[in-house]
Structure formats: C-alpha cells, structure tokens
Write a structure and sequence with these properties.
The chain has 19 helices and 18 strands. It has 604 residues and is an alpha/beta fold. The longest helix is centred in the middle third of the chain and has 34 residues, at 300-333.
Length: 604
Amino acid sequence: MTIDYVFRHAIVAVALFASCGSLAEEWVGPTAQLNISMVERPNILLVLADDLGFTDLASYGSEISTPTIDALAQQGVSFTNYHTAANCAPARAMLLTGVDAHVAGVPNIPEMLASHQQQQYAHYQGVLGSNVVTVATLLEGAGYHTYMAGKWHLGTGPGQLPSERGFERTIALADSGADNWEQRPYMPLYDKANWYADGKEYQLPEDFYSSRFLVDTTIEFIASNIDDGRPFFAYLPFQAVHIPVQAPQKFIDRYMGVYDGGWDQLREQRRTRAVELGIIPADSDMARMSTTADWNALDAKQRLYQAKRMAVYAAMVEAMDYNLGRLIDYLKAQGLYDNTIIIFTSDNGAEASGPQDQDSFWGRNGPAAMGYHTDYERLGLKGSYNSISPSFASAAVSPLAYYKFYAGEGGMRVPLIVAGASLPVKGELTQAFSFVTDITPTVLSFAGVRPPDGRYRGRSVEPMTGHDLGPLLRHETDRVYGPEDTVGYELAGHAVLFQGDYKIVYHRTPLSDGQWHLYNILRDPGETEDLSSLQPVRLQRMLSAYERYTRENSVLPVPLGYNHLKQLVINTLHNRMRTPVLVALLTILILLPLLVAYRMKHKK
C-alpha cells in the first residue's frame, strides 16, 4: 500500500464525513384501561429524517414545500421543544429503546469513538447492546408485523442487524450514510455501501433513488400481510438529508434562485416565520455563529454556487415529503390510514461539515478522490457530491445556535409531529419539553403494550427512562416532565442537562469558551442570554444533577486532545492499513497545517 493511497483516503475522510397468543397476553396492557382491543390496535408508522434542521419544514417556518408533513401537523400535535441526540447512531439507539445512549452501547457513532481509550469498554462499542430491547421486539412479541426500510447504523455483527432486533422484514443501510442514486460509499471508511435485506447482503436496483425506494419497500412490506388482520409497526428512516445531498432535477429546479440572498437573510426569514406560526416566542432572539461566513465577501460565481448547494438541500427535503405522500396515499387507498398513528421527527439537527469554499483544496480533492464531481450544472444529480456548509446549516436550524454534533439547541432540537385520525387533538402546538427516549414508551402506549420491568424473556434488560407522551396528546396534562425531573446527555465531551424550562450546556473548544452556561430555553431557544451569574444556585444544582447523570450512565471522559474529525481520520486509516505508527504520523501531518491556520485566523 502506497503513501499516496493512504494520504488520499485521509484527505477524503476529513473532507467528506458528516460528522448517523400467550406472549401477547403477557405484554399487552389491560384493554379496558387503555381503550385498545387486540383487534382495534392501531398501525404505527415511525418516520425519521436524517440531519433535518429545526425549521426545515414549512409548518416550522421553512420556505421548503412540505405539504405531506404539514398535513400531518394539522391532524395532530407538533412539538416545539422536543430534543434528540446530537448525532445519528445515539439518537437511533434511544429512539428505538427508550434507554440512554451510553447505557444502550451507543455513546457516539462507532466511526468517531477513540479506539484504545474508549472501545475497551463494553458500552463504548457504538453498536446496540444486548442489554436493551427494541420497540420492534416488543411489538412483534405482541402480535404486530414489524417492518423497517432505511438507515440502521446500529451494528452489523451477530445479533445486531435489525432482522435480529425485532424487525420481521427489513432492507437496511448499515453505514452512517451512502449515495442516494446508486450503491456506493460516500466516504473512504467503507469499501462499499453496506445494504442488507432480511439479514443478508443486498444489491440495490438500477433505478434507485433513496427516498422513492424506501417508500416503495415500505409499501411492499405492508401489502405482503395486509389481509391477515394484524396491525403493523413500520419504521421508515430516510437518508434525506444526510450527505451526499442529492435530489431529482425536477425538485432542484423549484429552488433555483430562492437562496440567492444568502444564509443571513434566510436565517432571519425563518425566524420571522417561526414566530408567526407560534413555533418560538415572539421576543426570542438569535445569535450569529462564528462559523457563519460573510455572504457579501463572496463574488457572484461563489454566491451562485452556494445558493445551489442549498437549493439541492431543499429539493431533497421536498423529495422526501413527496415520497412520504405516496405512502400516505397508499394507506388511505387501502383503508388503513384512519387506524394509523404517524410519528415524524429527525435524528439530529442540520449537518454542517461541508466546506465553506467548494473551490478550496478540501472541497475539490475530497469528492474527486472518491470518484464524485462537484460541477455546478450537475450538482445533486447522479455522480455528484453536495453538502451544505456551517453557514447554511445555521439557517436550517434558525433561530437556534450550533448544529449537528454539538449540544446547542440547533444540534438537538428538531421537529416532532404525532398525528392520527384517532387522536383527540388536531393542529395544535405544545411547548412541553420532550426527549428522544420518550418515543418508544409512547409507541408502546399506543399499542397497549407494557414495557419490560427489568427483564424480558428470561434475561435482564435496562429499564426505559423515557416518558409516555400520551397524556400530552390526549390533553390530560400540559407536560410529562415535572419541574424537578432532569434529562442529561453527553457526546464526545459536549454536555447538557435539561430541567424544567432550563438547560445547562458545555461545549468543548474551539467553538465555545469551554465553560458551563445556563439558559431558559422555553423563553430563549436561541440561547442568547446566559443566566449563570444571575441564577448561580440553579446552576450549581443542575451541575450536581449532571454529575449524577454521568455516574449513573457510566459516561467516560474524552481522551486528551480528542477531536471528532481527527478521530475519524485515525479510524479510517486503521481500517485501511492497520499500521498505528504510520496512522499517527499521517494524522499529525494532515491536521497540523489546519490547526496552525485556524489559530492564526483567530489571533487576528
């Protein structure tokens, strides 16, 4: 293996990564209490977008056309204070189990775990542990058909694929992402795009486009058992809008020219619209991220290119919405819609790893080394590589601060819509705090299935920590978390604890000052007013609660000098050549110039 080969893949790694019967009687709850019978149990459709920002839906303030999802919002409840993990695999682990990501074995995506310092611990493998039971397993045991079509990213080893974690039928992408037009990897960590069907390696069809294919597959799965009278649970985790950001031309055309005003203009437009819709308080402010570039400093050609990058992003969101609409139409045509609960959300906030300057060394050479082009005319189409930079990512999460991988609201606060003809509440918003671990208990409640109380089928399992959102959806309460309840979260040293309307948050440098901050996120979702000095007692009390969270969930400290992109490079090179000394040397050679340039820039 040549040095050129290794160096080429190291470049790509930095440039491309986005920062992911009797049994039924035993587990079905009392039907009189829940008003659910075995025959009347609802179908449940859980839809998960990938890297969708807080205001990327029209019903949350976006200019993007999302009529299917907006109709769901009108038929149910939209959550404006829902939080998830700051990156993909931990979010998916908590979403499907109701258990904290560290306990479930997925504290970070495996591609970014420190191999020696962290992966020596059983709960730091980045794959779903055998100590947790998925919502699919529980529903399958209660008589549901269980289907999955989309991104898994929770392991491929023995017992780890979704076909072995409760899903009856599956077509699953095992990786953190992949191309949307063909079966090819998007980053050099993978030799190929690893797709599996019912536990076996799978070859995608020639006419593949991810959103269309995943909806077609879901329809096929539902149709295969439609006449047997049993309800279904369908999990539909889209690839949209994870990198590479790609979409059909007809959708791209609709957004050409829409973003010519730049990211600052878009961020303000979305904030204004979100206020009008009641998504955020009228007097809430927003801060400009230091990673947002100066739109006015770009020349005309650069502005056109940046605007098209965002146009393709918007097109991918609309393409997802359009194809989800085909699934909704199918359910209606088959008479299934009125007895189906639909939950729509995102795994984390917008992805911001795209280069600010596509003409830079990284912007040109990264995609080219993987066989992609970045041509303006073909951007978003087959063979192209596209992503948005931190500048437009900040607009995608407007008016929030930060984005994917960080514990700011922009990385963790995303849309959540729960809809269904059987729900008593229609077209309402709730400002109640909710967390990703709440989804599984809520789904189980809809199905009348009791969560396991420490044991399942003769083995010990972790108890769920999430709360059932049903009382909120039925107008029985205005919040499911009490003022003293706390929810902690940690990702690679970025840390947060929620309590009532408040949040303390810690970001590692260089994007922050490395200090804890206190915010009232109900009144100030943009995190513009630090209350630490005004409420020191609250701060200290919440810090103590966070320390308790780290002990109870075995949160490990990050290794000295840890950086998630550097770790990705190291893991990629380890995977490619297994030569630690050379890996370390090349990592230093690659990242040292970047570090020097960054420090020089910020000393000015």
